[in-house]
Amino acid sequence: MKNVAYYKSRIKTYYETVMIVALKNLKLRYRNSALGFLWTLINPLFMLSIFVFVFGKIVNNIENYPLYVLSGLIFWNFFVSSSNQMINKILESGGILKSVNIPPVIFPLSALISNLINFLITFVPFFALMIFFGYRPSWITLLIIPYIALFSMFTFGFSMILTSMNVFFRDIEMFWTSITPALFYATPVVYMVPADIKNYMLLNPFTHFMELARDILYWDRIPTLGHVVYPILITAVALFAGLSVYNILRKGFISQF
Amino acid sequence: MKMDKAPVIITKDLEVSFLVQKHGLNSIKQYFFSFGGQKLFEKKNVLRGINLEIYQGECFGLLGKNGSGKSTLLRTMAGIIKPDKGHVEIRGRIAPLLALGVGLEPEMSGIENIKLCSAYMGISKKEIKESIQKIIEFSELGNDIHMQVKRYSSGMMARLAFSMVVTLDPEILVVDEALAVGDLGFQNKCLNRILELKNRGTTILYVSHNNDEIKKLCNRAAWIEEGKVKMIGQAQHVVDAYVKQFC
Description:
The structure holds two protein chains of two kinds.
Chain A: H1 4-30, H2 39-58, H3 65-86, H4 89-92, H5 94-99, H6 106-132, H7 144-166, H8 171-186, H9 198-201, H10 205-219, H11 225-253
Helix pairs in contact in A: 1-6, 2-3, 3-6, 3-7, 3-10, 6-7, 7-8, 7-11, 10-11
Chain B: E1 7-21, H1 25-33, E2 41-55, E3 59-63, H2 70-77, E4 85-90, E5 94-96, H3 110-120, H4 125-139, H5 154-167, E6 172-176, H6 184-199, E7 203-207, H7 211-217, E8 220-225, E9 228-234, H8 235-244
Helix pairs in contact in B: 3-4, 4-5
């Protein structure tokens, strides 16, 4: 009975719904705020200036430190804000999910997409800033497009694990907000991987993404095979794990609203 | 009774249960100390074997005390809750009437909320565009449609929600206790619209604690108690029997 055309039309309406909700998120975020969109620029700029002026004095083995920090920080910020916005989206939408038959994943997914749109827009001024710091764009720069796609998928998969579990235990959200600052310092965002503990650092999946981002936006070099394969593998695992956890827990969501 | 028409909703031995969390640190402690033997969640049976057949074009009323399982039954029919046992068969597009304030974004205007809620209900952009004027007209909200919903009264919100559902020409309409807050004029308008839809062949599931409404609108009704169908039959009879227990 349920043929290809049926699923096609379903996917189309879900896609429309995701986009409408994503645009709503964006609209709501900046409504009633005087500076509006500028805030997404201000926050990383604050962080950047702190790291450059304070850490820059300590970390002196990195050439062009501002560019180094910026090329990692924007991705880290994207990840943290996405996961923080996704984590309570299913819970928050309980009222709707109780009354309408739509897949709960629509809500965290649209949170990710609104954040991605936001990120892509802020990427333009940040890219200008990178050029100001001395980055010279080349054709390698284009690799940033598949990189952003990959990193978004990773962010989605990873956050879906947290989002699904958070429906049952709010502790997940508390846990995540308290652990992210620690994770930030465990990831080479504002420093370079020290050679003697490199093997330990590589256990952190974020390290791989940072390395790849630096290949493109800092070193301006073609990434080595290892730098590409690991992020792809990690993304596949994260997506698989996120969607599996979601599918397993999904049946119980409704009794938690 | 309209046995000659085809059933559009069939439920067979429908059983639904919820997992209810045992709250508190103690339950988590007990869970760990019993090495998983003790459950962290408790099962609560809400529906215990519901058999119903609802026919095309009829208005079917559901009665029952608070917590008897009416809303759970509706949600299971709408596919929101998956049954533990038994099954539901639905033929047609089911349109839920959103409960008061559900899905509305307080910071956005009425018209923006129409677009948003329609998206939740799986209505395509094209369909929304075509019917938005009709929705606004039916709601009689006039220029208030551009006002933020947080400034709406509860009656105005009900107008918005109801107008969306009835203008979209659903095949199966679910009305779960939603007319109570509108003013008399709007309530009447809604009842007339429901009758109109019914005459056009829309199947209607109607939950209400207003017994007169059920008598007036519904052909048949079921009395749900503790997750079972206690009585099913002509609306008049079921309502009378249901009212009797409180006398």
